[in-house]
């Protein structure tokens, strides 16, 4: 039987493990807005090395393409904002506020994307940036757009992504 990927069951983040490997304490940030999850694998780049004596390349260097992740959290709360953008949450239940950080916060996490069926993805180290969406109206809601750039893990022997079956 063919394996098809379908839907998003959950997207979770975890602090990167102390040894630089995949985090182990994954938690969802909220609900994912339908149709917004994208995992992009850019084409590798080829650099031809030319010499005077030949009209074609003497050799080529291939560099892997950039990998990015994007999705929108449909129902962010103050905890989600702290996790994705830094800043601080103050107050007590029902009367909390979030204050943005004074400077851009660097946030690196492991990300795990679980589909409804098919292959899930684990990215051990992702540089995360987030911003509120511009939508706010009667038929739309303001969410948080999350963009991640996959980075090389700092733990030896760990690759920048892997899959698992659901």
Structure overview:
The chain is mainly β and 166 residues long. The protein has one domain. Helices cover 5% and strands 40% of the residues. It is built from one helix and twelve strands. The strands form three sheets. Strands 1, 2, 3, 6, 9, 10, 11 and 12 form an eight-stranded antiparallel β-sheet that branches. Strands 4-5 form a two-stranded antiparallel sheet. The chain is globular, with a radius of gyration of 20 Å. It comes from Chryseobacterium manosquense. InterPro entries: Bxb1_TTP-like.
Poorly predicted runs of 5 or more residues: none
Structural class: mainly beta
The dominant shape is: globular
Biggest sheet architecture = 8 strands, antiparallel
Strand content: 35-45%
Q: Give me the Rg, rounded.
A: 20 Å
**In sequence order, what are the helices and strands, one letter per element?**
EEEEEEHEEEEEE
Tell how many strands the DSSP assignment holds. 12
Distance between the termini: 14 Å
Give the overall average pLDDT.
94
Work out the helicity level: under 10%
Total DSSP helices: 1
Domains, number: 1
Protein name: Phage tail protein
